[in-house]
Amino acid sequence: MAKQNIYDNEVFFEGYRKLREKESNANDLFEIPALFSLLPDLKDKAILDLGCGFGEHCKGFIEKGASKVVGIDISEKMLEVAKAENSDPKITYLNMPMEDLETIDEKFDVVVSSLAIHYVEDFTGLIKNIYNLLNPGGVFVYSQENPINTTHSTGERWTRDENGEKLYVNLSNYGIEGERESVWFVDNVKKYHRMFSTIVNTIVDGGLTIEKMIEPLPTEELLEKYPDQRDLFHKPDFLLIRASRKV
Amino acid sequence: MAKQNIYDNEVFFEGYRKLREKESNANDLFEIPALFSLLPDLKDKAILDLGCGFGEHCKGFIEKGASKVVGIDISEKMLEVAKAENSDPKITYLNMPMEDLETIDEKFDVVVSSLAIHYVEDFTGLIKNIYNLLNPGGVFVYSQENPINTTHSTGERWTRDENGEKLYVNLSNYGIEGERESVWFVDNVKKYHRMFSTIVNTIVDGGLTIEKMIEPLPTEELLEKYPDQRDLFHKPDFLLIRASRKV
């Protein structure tokens, strides 16, 4: 099974780093607030962060009272930044792919993952591992690209009018799941497209109960500052889910 | 709150009747098999069918062992056909809109609805009523148009190449929920678009647990007989959900 480590590519790493430093990037505006809104009270909780990247969230969880955070990432370069910029005695950073979760011999109250799971081919195996890593009553909160996004691979994403205004999203192959190659700073970034129904069924069949789903959209207030974000009403960029292990 | 009774319109009624009589209509090929696949064992169960139309499903539930079926529909014309063609001592047909469910003073083991709920404006109120009508352990199974479908209102649904082959679904306004007017035999058939996340959250917030979701796609075998159905891989027509009342 492929374990993609695109973040250790030099070109990708620098491009990604600059994107995240932009003041109004989509993560800051939509994905991060939605992700944190789904988290339970973290006081005295043990947290596992899958694809923790630069470790900002790990640090954030400690600030919200977590007693222990384990952050894993496949990219050593990302973890170097995490250790330099977001270290804490309560945080452990582990360099490992998400596919190797069964090697972790601890239980957590919260498993969280920010925009990493659409890179994982075996979602069923991942959910099984997450279930096993959660304490009863534990919560899984994650974000991924919206399925209306992940289905896209080649060709133009939008149909525009004569003035260049976006009219439609060019949606195709939504029902054909699996690998998509896309260009994001470098060629051949591999993502895995899954339909809404497959995502829901995989989580439910893995023993977790779906509690909430968010497809973030801009508020009126945000649109005044960032009018381009109205395009999200055609197609939300993200999908976030909270699910729990009942017993 | 609008209670739309388009099925009592003469033109609509005849058009719809002819569509359902076609041998390879989308309901027979995809929606009905998926709906029945989600049903529990109906032996000795009490069933409520919301928007029962011609009553074929009500009759089918009796054939599968149900002890009692109540079918409701807003259209008197539809129920006249139901009573003539699909009557049974164990079936009661009631002429009422789905919005008036709180007037029913019984409990059911299964509440089912086939392609009717996208006509209902108040989904939250509907789910509340369904929860109250279900026995603990009871199951709600329903089908609706897929949200990728319901978002469409005016304009061309597809972008085609120079040979007329379908390239893309023209997706727009997915994030703008609410009324859509469409032409289906007659003008101004009103449907209500809701995002996947809103559908899931409304069901969960109403106290039901999501158990399974289906977006039906054609099998290889079916494609050999009906090659045009490959378009469904761009955009499934239907969404089906099974949810249960645990306590």
List keywords for this structure.
alpha/beta; 29% strand; homodimer; 247 residues; Rossmann fold; 7-stranded mixed β-sheet; two-stranded antiparallel ribbon; 11 strands
The DSSP helix count of chain A reads 8
Which CATH class of chain A is shown? Alpha Beta
Number of strands of chain A: 11
Radius of gyration of chain A: 18 Å
Q: What is the beta-strand fraction of chain A? A: 25-35%
Q: Pick out the low-confidence regions of chain A.
A: none
Domain count of chain A: 1
The SS-based structural class of chain A is alpha/beta
What's the CATH H-level superfamily name of chain A?
Vaccinia Virus protein VP39
**Structural shape of chain A:** globular
Oligomer designation: homodimer
Largest contact between protein chains? A-B, 32 and 32 residues
**H and E string of chain A:** HHEHEHEEHEHEEEEHEHE
Q: What is this entry, summarized?
A:
Two copies of one chain form a homodimer. Helix content of chain A is 30%, strand content 29%. Chain A is an alpha/beta fold and 247 residues long.
Task: Give structural notes.
2 copies of one chain form a homodimer. Chain A is built from 8 helices and 11 strands. By secondary structure, chain A is of the alpha/beta class. Chain A has one domain: Rossmann fold (3-Layer(aba) Sandwich). The mean pLDDT of chain A is 92. At the A-B interface, strand 7, helix 7 and strand 10 of A face strand 7, helix 7 and strand 10 of B. Strand 7 of chain A pairs antiparallel with strand 7 (166-171) of chain B.
